[in-house]
Each structure stands twice: as structure tokens, then as C-alpha cells.
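Protein modeling request. Please complete all fields; requests missing the sequence field cannot be processed.
Requester role: graduate student
Desired output: 3D structure, C-alpha cell encoding
Chains: 1
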Amino acid sequence: MKVCFLLHQGSMYSGGQGIYAHHLTRELVELGHEVHVIAGPPYAELVDGVRVHKLRNYSIYRLLETGRFFFFGRHPVSFFHPINFYEIATSRFGFFSVMAAFSFRAYLKLRELAETHHFDLVHDVQGLGYGTLLTRANGLPVVANIHHPLQVDRENSIRLARTFNDKIRWARFYPFFMQELVARRMDRIITGSQASAASVMRLFRLPPEQVAVIYDGVDTEAFRPLEVPKRPDSLLYVGNSDDRNKGARYLLEALALLKGRRHFRLTVVDRPNAFLVPMLSHELGIEDRVTLTGRLSREELVRLYNQATLVVSPSLYEGFGLPAAEAMACGTPVLATTAGAFPEVIEDGVSGLLVPPGDASALADAIERLMDDAELRQRLGQEARRRIVDHFSWRETALRTQALYQEVRSEAVRRC
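Delivered output (416 residues):
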């Protein structure tokens, strides 16, 4: 089968969507499929057998955030391209239109590729921009990923905003109708957990037969136990700490409760210009115990997972929870919440510990319990590794995705 992926941020170091596409496309090629990827920057690393078609994507919203207004210096005529003009206009009013703009550019690229390639199916990875509707209207079957609905992000961001102006900014930031309108017209929606599927069906009013649950995988050869010494009393957080849904503020508040009771050291793996962790750790008086690493290579991340006493994932909602699963694959005990998909990945008290989301006091108590009980940490870490190896491989993800492709393609043929 000839499949084309749409990926508005292609690199596996740009977040969960890049990691998902990197591993899934590799497995699909090994299963005998021809795989193409239309990607925006940062671009996907080349995987043997995967053909990458790079799109220019200006990320104008981010440029405006940094005060850069002259982003077409070398190509000033580009300002007048309808898609660029749309992205500039909407971004100036505070709307995050990157995914919508990418979807239109991807549609034009698909039309160009159609002259030499005849794709059987398009796989949209967490985009669901309006341009994808044009692809679907042209007769190509489309499946799309939703790890969780943007309504969840919007509601949590507004609830946690400190000022009225911040609430307005977050209300504008997330597209109001795009994800729902596009999702309803896709052949299938893939979610990474039963929790995500339930949210998608409820919020988007999708029938169960349109939604498929296919769990993400973990590269258990890369993420594995290493013979390295543990750093005593060390905590590790991996993820976008500025994303309100990731719950980093509750972890910092929990550590503030513990600062007079015990020693600890928190390492935060996030981009170097993250603002919430430095700001809040200073306000809480724990900045001397918190380190922000910046971007790391996969090898450096695996080493940190292995050196940590425990990994904390305090999210308010998770469609799957990849950092927690990676830590589990390394045999490191994980403390997470009961939100979203975590209870499907982590068996509470068996392969990790779970606490209520948004509860700093419960987090603090669980951290202290794990720090004080080496035998519990060892048992949880061993069971965590076993659970990931047994249930969450990328090959299984690819086989289930392949079966879905065949089902969708057969339906499309019957419609013709």
C-alpha cells in the first residue's frame, strides 16, 4: 500500500507526533509499504525507505511572539501568497493557525505529487486542519490521529490562567471548531487510548465505529535499563512544562511542600527558553533545587531516565503519556496521575503509582513515600519494564494500523 503522512512538525525531537511518525513509518516500511511524509519544520530525520517531502512553514505565530515581523526578508513577494497572508492575519489576532495553514500547503503538495504518485491513503498526524477536507473531498481516504481534543487544552489553560487577559488569550489561541469539523469527515480517527476515544466521541459526537483505539509504542531497545548509578533523591520531569495540561506547576508546588522535610533535586527536560519552571520555582523558593536541561539527545535522555530515583508525570490529561512509558521501559519507577490514559498504561501499585490530577499535596506524599522505600521503587521499576515490553511495542502499533488502513481502503473501493 502507498501511504502519505501529513506532519506539521516532522522531527522526532519536536514532540510526541514526531516520535509517533518516526517509529510508525519505519515499521510500515519493514512491513512492505511505500511511505511518504509531507512535513513542516523541524523536518523529519530520514528513515531508510521513507520519502520525505519538505514544506516551508513559517510558524508566524511564534515569530510574532518573539517580536519578529519581517519574516519574508529574502522572499518579500511571499507575503502576498494567500496561505501566508491568512496565517499572518489570524496570528496577529492571537489565533494559532499553524496547523490550518500547514494543511492547505500539504493539500497543494499532495496535488503536485498526484501527478507522479497514486496514494492509497493519507494519514494525518494530529493536524486536522481545514485543508485536509480538500484532500478528503478529492476522493483520497484519510485517517487522522487525535491524542486528545483541543477543547481539553483550552478548558485547562483558561482555568489555570492567572489574569482575565490571559484567559482571553488562551480562549483565542485554540481553534474553536476546526478539529471537530474536520474529524467528523475523516474515514477514521485513531486515538492512543480508551480515555481519548471516550473524550473524542463525547466532544465531537462521533459514532464508535469511526474511532479506532491503537496504543502508541515505545522503542524498548533504545529505552532500556542501563548499568549506571542512581542519583540519590533525584526527580525527573520530561515534557513541555509551559503546557498547562502537563501539570508542572503542581509538581513544583508539591516540592515546595517537601522542601523543609527532605532533600531532593528536580531535573526538568524541556527547551531552554521554558518560562514557567524558572518563574514558579523562584516564587516557591526552590530554584536552587531545580535544573532545566534544554533539549537532549535520545541517548542523554535514556541515561537521565536511568539515573533518576523516580520520574514524575503530573498531567491533568494525557492521550497516552509517552515520557512515563519511556521511563517505565528503562525500569525507573513512575509517579503519574489518574488522568486520561495513565490508568491504561500504569497499573496503580503494580507498575507505578497514581494520584489524583491537580493535587499537589497527594503528589508530595507519594514522592516522599517512593523516596523512602527502595524496595517499592525496585519492584515498581521491574514491573514497569515488563509491562511496556509485553504490551506496547511499535510493531504491534504498526500491525494494528496496517489492518485499519486495509479496512478503510476496502470501504473506499466499495464506494467507487
